[in-house]
Amino acid sequence: MSWWDQDDDEDEPDYDESDVRVRPNRRGSRPRTKTRPEHADAVTGTVLGVDRGRYAVLAAEGTADERELVAARASELRRKSVVTGDHVDLVGDVTGAPGTLARIVRIGDRTTLLRRSADDTDEVERVIVANADQMLIVVAAANPEPRIRLVDRYLVAAYDARIAPLLCVTKSDLADPGPFLENFAGLDFPVFLSGRDRMPLDAIRESLIGHRTVFVGHSGVGKSTLVNALVPGADRAIGRVNAVTGRGRHTSSSTVSLRVESPDGHGWVIDTPGVRSFGLGHVDPSSLLGAFTELAEIAENCPRGCTHLPDAPDCAIIETVGAGALGDAGRARLDSLQRLLTTFASG
What we know:
The structure is a single chain. By secondary structure, this protein is of the alpha/beta class. The protein folds into three domains: about 45-105, CATH 2.40.50.140; about 115-270, 3-Layer(aba) Sandwich (Rossmann fold); about 285-345, no CATH class. Helices cover about 20% and strands about 25% of the residues. The chain is built from eight helices and 13 strands. It has helices at about 150-160, 180, 200-210, 225-230, 285-290, 295-300, 315-320, 325-345, and strands at about 45-50, 55-60, 65-75, 85-90, 100-105, 115, 125-130, 135-140, 165-170, 190-195, 210-215, 255-260, 265-270. Strands 10-9-8-11-13-12 form a six-stranded mixed β-sheet. Helix 1 (about 150-160) packs across helix 8 and helix 7 packs antiparallel against helix 8. Residues about 1-5 and about 240-250 have low confidence and may be disordered.
């Protein structure tokens, strides 16, 4: 008998698999699940502003329990952006007491989404604001000179987002705004004229009540001055125009919602940083036609793929307007549509 067949220690116990202790794998030992808490007790609010990962949120708007909270984005939303104007659900400490922090766990449906891209070739969109229903475009009659193409781009973005545009021309005491406004004769939206001796605050404020209105404009056109006049205590920084370049200095560095009060109620001004470019790489050009209801109906008779531009063959809109069926108003509307389409197509 070989030595390994000999039983040298008869007292040694026999072992089997059930006697072996397996050290548990602590990392990942519990199965992952995609189930998330329902947060049935969540509080709903609206994002007023964003600052370095912290969100100012207004809860219970218009009630006796209205309060402003500071919140962070919950881990389950780490891949989703939260922007000014978003309707969100919050949990955690939602009292709004100093030093407290709530958590945003859900983002509500967005009725509108105003976006821009870095340039016309960049399809990566940059969300400016959610759930706005109006856009007030602020432009100066002079100093700096009005930029028609930039206003066209604002209009394209507004129509694409289904946001109603308004226009305010500041510094109208320095130059006649008439020639500039002729470029938009075919577009039906309110226009306000403001100058050193007159600022139609009552009329502008009335147009804001009951709405969430995003203010956009080139730096130095007087947008922050207008916001400060409409919302006392807003303290939005006011820039100056460089005497050499004619360009305004960027002052507002963040997008923020400010309440506008009136005896008839309140509305919201959403002030944005001044921009010198407004890329449209994300826009679907077909959405522009939707802003011209009467022309869109005629366009149903256009050939497939019709651009509606002056050189488009067999364009039903061009033929109808050319025949005088819609009168001078129709010609002005078609001119505006074609200019906006050209602005988008030419970049």
